[in-house]
Amino acid sequence: MRLVKIGLASVNTTVGAFGRNVDKALDVARRMAADDVTVGVFQEQLIGGYPPEDLVQWQGFVDHQWPQLERFARETGSLPTVFLVGVAVNHQGLRYNCAALVAGGRILGLVPKEKLPTYNIFYEGRTFSRGYPGMHEEFRGVPFGDYLFRFDFGLLAPEVCEDIWSPEAPMRRRTYSGAELVVNVSASPFRVGHGDTRREMLATRAADHQCTIAYSNALGSNDGIIFDGGGFINQNGKPVLEEPRFQEGFAAAVVDLDRTLRLRAENTTWRSDREAWLREGGKQVPTIDCTAAFTSRREKLRYPVPAHRSFFLPAPDTRRSPREALCEDILDALALGIGDYFEKTRAFKVIGIALSGGRDSLLTLLIAHRYAKRVRPDNPGSLLRAFYMPSRYSSDATREAAETIARELGVSFQVVPIEEAFERELAIARTMLAGAEVTPITEQNIQARLRAQRMWNWSNSSGGLFLQTGNMSERAVGYTTTGGDLMGALAVIANVPKTVVMYLLDYLLEQTGSEGIRKVLAKPAGPELAHNQVGEEELMPFPILDACFYLFAGEKLVPSEMQAALEAMFPEVEGARLRGYVEKFIRLFLQSIYKWVQAPLSLHIGNLDLDRERALQLPVVTSSDWTKG
Predict the structure, then answer these.
(1) How many Å separate Cα 432 from the centre of its chain?
(2) How far apart are the first and last CA of the chain?
(3) Nearest CA to 364 among 396, 346, 387, 347?
(4) pLDDT value at position 614?
(5) Residues 6+ apart with CB under 8 A from 546
(6) Strands 39-41 and 82-91, how do they pair?
(7) What is the DSSP track for 433-444?
(8) Tell me, what's the pLDDT at 613?
(9) Taking the mean position of all CA atoms in its chain, how far away is CA 260?
(10) Would 65 disulfide with which of 47, 258, 316, 583, CB 3.0-4.6 Å?
(11) CB 398 within 8 A of CB 358
């Protein structure tokens, strides 16, 4: 047996906080060593934080990471653990995103990332250079390039994040060259359902390449991109360990690397593929011998046996239901997004929400409270402030709902009427129009802008983080007010569709029995900026609206294709009505891009996020002529 204990770390880093990031990593590294971990795996860009965006164009931002890496090596020199750490380096005028191998007080090697994602939220091809097969160089006396590393416990291959997502990845030539343990330092953002995708992909890679994979993911939210942490160990297709997400710390498990070699030898297909690769001129990746620089201590390790003490019977099923998994993941991700923005910017003392008594502001408050409960478990409401700003159109039902939920959560609740200010602004608008009528939509917008102005005034004087509460569906079609409810310092649910908002509230009602949630859900959704205003009546049914958004923005279908899909999805709705909904959606969506590009920074949880700098990059000045065929 060749037993190795692998530890996967989750460290919540901040971009640019080199010293603090390394301090956190050192704490985890020491705890790993005390737990007899042989190989400790940290995340991509551990030292600099991720994503650094164009900060890597500052030479100092990259160069100043190296002394911190040396400090990490120096302060872990006495630990019997090999560590993999993410770092950026500046080599011959080019910047590289690397996995650094650290052991025995030394930096033993640097392996640069080869696959640079430049899609969705990623821009790495803009800022970093690629490693490549056969790259064999030195950086400050350290081997730099396409290498394997031999230790007394086995042959290790480092790699970085996206390198594992391609079937034609560095892993192929490295395992054909003898690598037994592939270690991937990653920064893979949270996306709904993506945890399952990672798990399945890693199992496939470990089986295809007949190796043991250790994968450690970044944790924390930076600029609205949320990293859920966690990680996986998979041996030749068999799951060994899944590290918990959304929490700092580490998890570890023992593997027998002799088992990896035995299974590799038994797999005739893998052996045949490797032989073909060699015949076709595949070049072996060179190995750096690290046995003189580091000696592991594995005498305390014990063979990895199942916790339920059976190799044949399944372990107890601890999986969550799909409903619980979806809801809890979204709520945890958004709470992490609020908390990290609040803490890492160091600009705020308290969190404020304009609570309308409607669904969107309610969900935003509940997510903020989830974060507050983590940092102030004894009195989470003390971190939050809720403001109810009624006009003539506000109903008693929404006020009562807002009061009830604030009371249940222990959140300060203030009623600040806007009616007098509304009258004054209406009069001023009429004067400016020289006798022309103020349109109904202007009357609605005046109310929304008054509320936003008051929230900004409160924020400026209190050091408060003003949370924007609009959802993705209404934002997509411009059912929002520029300078009004579109405003805030952080848009919490701006990438959550309205149907998901309602689904989450239904789930939270089931979990808590909250009377405040019940009262909010009892009333049809609407902004209450006019008499008896109902959102679905002014727009379209929210399930159809969300389907239109997905089909147009996600699947990139044209109107005729959208209608065909909607007819299959909603057969109870007549075709002419669906055609009208499609035409309305396209018109509103393309006309509203100018609005949502002005929205505040938003939290990202999917691939369809309305953020021109991140996911859906659309021109503001555009025409819908092309949609007509």
Answers:
(1) 46
(2) 66
(3) 387
(4) 67
(5) 473, 497, 498, 499
(6) parallel
(7) TTTPPPPHHHHH
(8) 66
(9) 32
(10) 47
(11) yes
* Angle between the N-to-C axes of helices 498-512 and 359-375, in degrees from 0 to 180, rounded to the nearest 10: 50
Where is pLDDT greater, at 249 or 621?
A: 249
How far apart CA 194 and CA 120 sit, in angstroms, is 14
Burial 122-138 (b: 16+ CB within 10 A, else e): bbbeebbbebeeeeeee
Q: Which of 628, 540, 625, 620 is nearest to 585 (CA)?
A: 540
What pTM, to 2 d.p., does this model score?
0.94
- Asked whether the predicted pLDDT for residue 193 surpasses 90, the reply is no
Say if residue 528's pLDDT is above 90.
Answer: no
Rounded alpha-carbon distances, angstroms, from residue 604 to 13, 295, 370, 597: 18, 43, 18, 15
3-state SS, residue 350: strand
C-alpha atoms less than 13 angstroms from C-alpha of 121 in its C-beta half-sphere: 24
SS3 24: helix
- Its sign, for the CA torsion 374, 375, 381, 383, is negative
Model confidence over 110-137: pLDDT tens digits?
999 999 998 877 889 989 999 999 999 9
Task: Output the CA torsion 259→265→268→269 (10° steps).
Answer: 70
The CA distance from 367 to 360, in Å, is 11
Higher pLDDT, 597 or 203: 203
The arithmetic mean of pLDDT across residues 576-601, rounded, is 93
Block residue for tokens 């209450």: 528
The set of residues, in sequence order, having a beta carbon less than 8 Å from that of 220 and lying 6+ positions away, is 12, 13, 14, 226, 227, 229, 336, 340
Q: Give every CB contact of residue 423 below 8 A, 6+ residues apart in sequence.
A: none
Lowest mean pLDDT among 260-264, 339-343, 609-613: 609-613
Residue listed under structure tokens 């023992």: 254
Nearest residue to 547 via CA among 524, 568, 526, 521: 568
| pLDDT band at 625; cut points 50, 70, 90 | confident
